[in-house]
Amino acid sequence: MNNKAQTSEEGIKDFFQWREKMEKACHIKGDKIIFADSGVIPLEIPLDECNTPEKILDWTYKLIKATWITKDVVGEFIRVACSHHGLKLPID
After folding, report:
1. For the chain, is the Cβ count within 10 Å smaller at the N or the C terminus?
2. How many of the other CB atoms lie within 10 Å of CB of 16?
3. What is the pTM of this model?
4. How would DSSP label each residue in 37-58?
5. Rounded CA gap, 21 and 56, in Å?
6. Whose CA is closest to 63, among 76, 74, 49?
7. Residue 7 counted as domain residue
8. pLDDT averaged over every residue in the chain
9. What range does the domain containing 62 cover?
10. Helices (H) and strands (E) in the chain — how many of each?
């Protein structure tokens, strides 16, 4: 780990690079949420299977069992699903 202090410009650049990575890792295409880094075949979750808080929670439990997923990607899934369906995130 680099102990060098980061300038605010570097921090902003890092944030936008991270956001771009998250948007590629988990995004909506057509009527599905696509996980691009899930293996040879991308994982696809139909949007109608994550249109309520309960369904999002169910998928979250399934996702956290996957060896390829990170907590950032799970968070992006929750953000994407809630945003698409107009559901309020608990942190809002």
Report:
1. N
2. 10
3. 0.79
4. TSSSS-EEEEGGGSSSHHHHHH
5. 21
6. 74
7. no
8. 88
9. 23-85
10. 3, 3
